[in-house]
Amino acid sequence: MALPPILPNNVMSQRITQAIRIRADQTPEREHSSPLYLTSSFCYEDAEQMRAVFADEEPGNIYTRFSNPTVQEFTDRLAALEGAETGFATASGMSAIFASFLAFLKQGDHLLVCNAIFGSTHTVITKFLPKYGIDHTYVSTNDPASWEAAIRPNTKMFFLETPTNPGLDIVDLAAAGALCRKHNILFNVDNCFATPIGQTPIDFGADLVVHSATKWIDGQGRVLGGAVLGKKALIHEVYLFCRSSGPSISPFNAWVLSRSLETLDVRMERHSGNALYIAQQLEGHPKIASLRYPFLPSHPQYEIAKRQMRNGGGIVCFDLKGGLEAGRQFLDSLQMLSLTANLGDTRSIASHPASTTHAKLTEAERAAVGITPGLIRISVGLEHRDDILEDIKKGLA
To answer: Peptide bond before 353: cis, by omega within 30 degrees of 0?
Structure first.
């Protein structure tokens, strides 16, 4: 049976308020803004306390590679938004994804993956996981009926992202969650594009949620960061892997990201509102062969998007008539939008996935997930929507 769609507004509003009110130091006489713990290690009152903390007999911090109050505040806030029991923060989104794989997969295991994923994730799965004896099978993002046939006796995890990067396919989270429960496999979701403001995969059965906090969560292109969230028992395994392998986030970056979470809701309201407006205004433009935005009725998975998402996110993508050359001319004609491979900034960004973020895929692999030579990805920023639209239209002209 499918899980209920979208949390009631009062539940999500409580999560947002809870996340904002979490502080690293709850002592009333401390400063209103959370303190920043820039330290590599922590001291103890006596030898017995030190022994007890190292033995996990009493709570405490040992070393910032393991834990840090500032980092914990960030993960506590993000976990509150996602509806997760806890989380572990990493130095980048890719280190979070890699940790979510290696903490649970071993030699001889099989990973099921939806074929529309970020280019670096594809590289990890196809180039590095095989070195550990971990096999994988790609399945069609938009064909849930085919997923079950790809499951093997040694399948341990199903990994997907939704909306996908950069084609904005929407994967049915309820269907994926039901399949994973039926076969007792871990359900791992990259929620970077939607953010917990847009959707909460745990409410649809996800066991693990991963983020590149570098994107919308930071929101200003300042720092790198990532996170894995889920049940305490699962995150403990992630913690053990990261504690030894060391993809630690710096306390300063965690502090920046924690503060950013306080404004994530209001920022995503503006990002998604701007993006929907841009998509509505550009749909049917004579220079555009096709355009996608999850909350446009013309989107192939519009009904799924409306069922599992609270907004359509801040990304619009379109395929230009004229292919690669048209894409280059468009990018070179922009005056306000930034040209960079990042996304989720206050400033609007235009990128060409086929030559940047997904350049390492073969032409056939790109075609299979809808990355055409003329595909443009717009990360819609916080500027006035009419100014963003005007610059895009000038580029098209």
So the answer is: no
